[in-house]
Specification:
With 112 residues, the protein is an alpha+beta fold. It contains 5 helices and 4 strands.
Length: 112
């Protein structure tokens, strides 16, 4: 399986996916930590994939979206954006609305 196929499989097989530095339980940068806090606050069941574990993965996610930074947030296979966009959507209530519209259950827990 190529790196692109791995990324696409993760994106399509998880309702909410975050490519991040570190893990949901132990984010290793402030931006990844903010996204983890937002998801946990909303009670969303989400998966975090640690890009620090593999240099090819770290570059691969940037190439996949043509987005230069991590974290990268996906909902139901759709790229939402990075930390700033997720934070703005959370603060405005747009993120919760999007999750509800997409049928994403809330009150779950993160998985690594």
């Amino acid at each position: 399986m190529s790196m692109n196929e791995f990324i696409e499989n993760e994106v399509k097989s998880n309702d909410v996916l975050v490519f991040m530095k570190g893990t949901p339980a132990f984010p290793q940068c402030g931006f990844s930590g903010q996204v983890a806090q937002i998801m946990d606050y909303l009670g969303v069941e989400w998966k975090g994939v640690n890009v620090l574990a593999d240099d090819d993965l770290r570059q691969g996610v940037k190439d996949y979206t043509n987005w230069p930074t991590v974290p990268q947030v996906y909902v139901k296979g759709e790229f939402i954006g990075g930390c700033d966009i997720a934070r703005e959507m959370f603060q405005s209530g747009e993120l919760k609305t999007l999750l509800e519209q997409q049928g994403v259950p809330m009150q779950g827990k993160a998985t690594a």
